[in-house]
Structure formats: C-alpha cells, structure tokens
Amino acid sequence: MTADSNGSGPVRPQDDLYQFVNGAWLAEHDIPADKAIYGAFHVLRDTAEQDVRAIVEKAVAAGHPEGSDARKIADLYTSFLDAETVERLGAEPIADQLALADAVSDVPGLVAALGQLELEGVTGVFRVWVDGDAKKSDEYIVYLMQGGLSLPDESYYREEERADVRAAYVAHVAKLLELAGRPDPAGAAERILALETRLAANHWDRVRERDVTQTYNKLDRAALEALTPGLGWSRWLAASTVPESAFAQVVVREPSFFTAAAAALQEIPLAEWKEWLSWRIVHSAAPYLSSAFVEENFAFYGKTLTGAPELRDRWKRGIDVVEGSLGEALGQLYVAEHFPPAAKSRMVELVANLVEAYRQRIEGLDWMGPETRQRALDKLGTFVPKIGYPDKWKDYSALEVDPADLIGNLRRSVAVETARELAKLGTPVDRDEWHMPPQTVNAYYNPRQNEIVFPAGILHPPFFDLDADDAVNYGAIGAVIGHEIGHGFDDQGSRYDGAGNLNDWWTDEDRAAFEARTDKLVAQYDALSPAETPGQHVNGKLTLGENIGDLGGLAIAYVAYQLSLAGAEAPTIDNTTGPERFFAAWAFAWATKTRPEEAARRLTIDPHSPPEFRCNAVVKNIDAFHDTYQTTEGDAMYLPPEDRVRIW
C-alpha cells in the first residue's frame, strides 16, 4: 500500500484507488519545468519525442538526396535550429504580411487580406476545413467555424475571475506589437481586446459546440451570403485561392456568430480591424521569430495561462514543427523502428475481444428496446479499427523546404496542406486517411467513418506491453479501445449511424432512458472539484462524452478481460489477483500532476475530466470494482448500487 497525501498512513483502494496505486509515483515525481502537466501519458510522450529526435538527427547527419522526404525532414529541422539566422532576421519574415495589413483601405480589402493570410497560416475571424458531410458521409464538404479569439475560450473575455488574465493579455499584446515596430502598441492592445470581446460575445460556448445536431447547418451559397450580409465571400475565396465551387454548399457550425461577425466587419472602425489583423500576424509567427518574440509569447501563453516556468528546449520545439508539417513522413520512419508486427497482431486480438464484449453487453441491456438494440448492434458490426499506421502514406512531394527559411517553410506547408484538403472536394471520401501521425501518443474515434484509430505511439507501456499480463493490457489499452468504441455510443456519437451519417436510429423511449442515465453522470461530475483548484468544479455537460467513453470503456474492457480468460481462473501474480491488476493498470494510466493554472484552464476548455476523476469517478460506478475490493458503506469509494450509472 502507498502512503496517503499527507503521509499519515496507508491508503486503501476502497477509499481512493487513484492514491492507492499512484501515491508513491506522485510523491517521487515533480512536474518538469517546461511542462504544465505531467503523468503516465506525458512520460510516454517524452519517450516518443526522444525516439523521433533520434530519427530526425539521423536524417540530418545522413545527407539524403534533395527532394526526398528524409531530406525535407532534415532541412525543416535545420531551419528551426538555425537560431543565428532567426535572431538576425527578427521580425523581417513577417514584414510582407504586416505591409498587407497596412495597405487595407476598405472592408472588401480587409476580407481579401483575411483570405490571403489564411493561405499563409494566419487564422482570421473564422476557421475553414474540409471533412466528410455529416449527413452524406461518402462526400466531402467545407465546414465553417467561429474564430477570431486569441484567449483560450469565450469565457475568458467575460468572467470576472479572468480579469487578471485579460490585463496580462493586454500587456502581452502591447509588448509583441512593440517588438514588431507597430504604432501605439498600448492603445492598440486595448482596442484589440475590445474587438475580440465583441467577437467572443457571439461565440457559442463549448457545451453548445458539442451538439452535433445544432452545429450541422448546411447552406448553399445564396443562403451563406444572406447569413453574412456585406461580407463578400468572393473576395475571400479569390485571395485564399479557394475555388468558388468549394462554397456551393457549406456547413456553418454557428450561424448566429457568422451574422454577428459580418456586422462587426461593417461596424467596427477599419483602423481597429487593421490593428487586430496586425496582431494576428504577429501572434501567429511569434513562436518562430527571434528570442524576444518567443520569450514574450511563452511568458503569457506558457507561464500565465499554464503555470509552466520554463520554455521547452529548442530541439523539442523543432520536433513539433517537423511533426506539424511532415508528420506521416516522420511516422513512416518511426514505425519501421518502433512498432513490431507482433504488436499489431496482439492489438487485433484485443480489439476483437472488446467488440465482442460490447456485443454481449448491448444484447443484455435492460433499458433498451429491441428495435434500438438491433440498430446499435448493426452499428457495432460496422466499426473499422485502424492500428499502428496507415496503409498508404501522405505524399509530400509538393512541399519545398529551404534549410535557411523557417517562416517560408511553414507558409509553404500550410499552402500544400490547404491544396491537399481542397483537392478532396468532389472526390470519394478517402477511408484510408488518418488524422494523427503514427508517432502520436493518443487515439481517436471518427464518427463520420465509424472508425477507431490507435497510432503506434500509444502502443507502448504503460498502455500496451507485449510482455505484460493480460489483466494489465486490458486495464490500460483495453480500456482505451473500449473508450474509443464508446464514443460511437456517447451522447453525440450515438446520433451517427454505422455509415457515419447523422441519423436518429433511436426510439424516443430509448433515447429518454439513455438521457436519464447520462443526466445522473452529469450530476456526479458536476460535484467534483480538483485539489489544485478549490471551489472550481468539473463541467459535467462539457465532459459528458469523454465520461461516457471512460465509463463504458472500462466496464467493457473488464468483460473483454474475462472473455480472454476463456473460463480459466486469472493467475495470481505478486500476490495480486487478475482483477486487482486490471484496476491498478487503469489507475496508473491516469497518474498525473498538474499546475494550478493549467488545471483551471483545462476545467474551462477540456472535454476530458481531470485525471484523478477519470480514475476514481469511473470505478465507483462499476460493480466489478466493488466486488474486487469488497467495498462497504463506510468506504470513501463506496457508491450504493442504485446510484451507480450503468449505460453500456
């Protein structure tokens, strides 16, 4: 047993599974100075980062042929590490963009500038991307989403408790504008905050943003123009090189924001828009300019917002740049060295058992009627697992990389990726595409393709270990697999059918029964407050989808573990039973320390609950946990059976 947080004695799993498993780790580890949060996930990410660094440095040393992906990786990394050139240039790399902003003379010119800068990686008042149509998942369509803010969330502009952050933000904007040689930086910073505050007032909040039905608003071009009077989309399209045909139909996620933004373009003085546009240019480039820009950018977005006291080493930031521009080229090299075929075979077996466990649980649900149950089983039968790496790799032949031109490299990368995305329009949806490179320590569910994706990066200890006992693998990566499958059946994913289309396959009675259970889960999490942020609570509605994923994922992973035993008794290893090892593996996956500033930021913007609650709040609802540790009414982890939330 481990000591409790104040060292007064042993912690029992019946009182705090998270501390029981992780108390020693938490006591022995400090958050690295360049991090705001540190835990099992981050240890594995550090390992992957070092592995990728070795690959990149090998590419630099090898002198690969001009035009090869390995040479592009080497040259891009070299351009970032060339601090001497970066320091010498100062703000010169963005002089042309700032001149573009200065030359704006009217609203049409402003719209055109926004379009041109979009192509160069400077995001404007809204975001644009291409994805499968949520109601015609075999077709691509353009999505439009609210934007324009430089603080993490619309709430930062209105909540009184964020006043200190807003004051720090104004000082930060003024400092960066001064470094860039802009006029009246202090006054401009105040006006920029006011402009963004107006945009933020019309932003949809994050809970509303999660609603996949409210955010699906398909409009033809005439309706889009009517929604945004005076904006003039043709100017934006021409300047961004997006063809007019791309906007024949679009999905606008937040229509009311776009109407308000179009009005703001007309009503806010042009001089203030030009100041804001200059700020967006400087803000976008600051991490890649000379040290004065980098350090000031970190002082606000690192120290102030997350609490991290030190800037990450230059090589780490350089790896991020390479991954952002050449992720799959780097991933192909990573897979060759760090993902053996046996790992993929073992994962195929794990996934199959998790799917079978879900099938058994769905068949046995007492709250779901036969019609909805059959449709749920039909959807489950169409899940597509992707493990390790893509079957075909992205082509980076169009990207030109100059080892002496960092900003130019980044702009060219944005242009290449924009062209890649636009080329999808009018073609069949590519169901082989991945949305994370293989070296990523993460996983995802894509509802429009009904796929669960597990990059090679996460398929290492403590989540997955070829040499580990099944109980450990099912408690860790098994729960991750179950979590991603669970997203197909969470409050939003459950609105998509097996073909990836928004399609209500539920009876009204079954949806009501489902929501009665999810409402109880919302209430459970609303009551939780992290130790790092006393008085600040989890938003149960914001985190609902992830909480459903965690709850279903772990419950189903336990069923799958039992299936893997094929009726045999789980072995006792080091005096622990199979179920105890299963729950310990789950708990250790969430071992995490978080700085208070970062904990507060995540409560506002993160759809995941804090790590300790991802551990303890979930297991409280799982009968197998209570059976394993024989909890009783006096135990802190005890939850009466009638209060336990059982969904899947």
UniProtKB/TrEMBL annotation:
Q: What is its EC number?
A: 3.4.24.-
Q: Which GO terms describe its biological process?
A: protein processing
Q: Keyword annotations for this protein?
A: Hydrolase, Metal-binding, Metalloprotease, Protease, Zinc
Which Gene3D superfamilies does this one have? Answer: Collagenase (Catalytic Domain), Neutral endopeptidase , domain2
Q: What class of enzyme is it?
A: hydrolase
Provide one Gene Ontology cellular component.
plasma membrane
This protein's record includes keyword Protease: yes
The cofactor required is: Zn(2+)
Q: Where is the Peptidase M13 N-terminal domain?
A: 13-390
Question: Which parts of the sequence belong to the Peptidase M13 C-terminal domain?
Answer: 442-645
Q: Name one GO molecular function term.
A: metalloendopeptidase activity
| Annotated SUPFAM superfamilies | Metalloproteases ('zincins'), catalytic domain
Which domain of life does this protein belong to?
Bacteria
InterPro entries per record:
MetalloPept_cat_dom_sf, Peptidase_M13, Peptidase_M13_C, Peptidase_M13_dom_2, Peptidase_M13_N
Q: Say which family it is in.
A: Belongs to the peptidase M13 family.
Q: What is this protein called?
A: Peptidase M13
Native species of this protein? Kribbella sandramycini
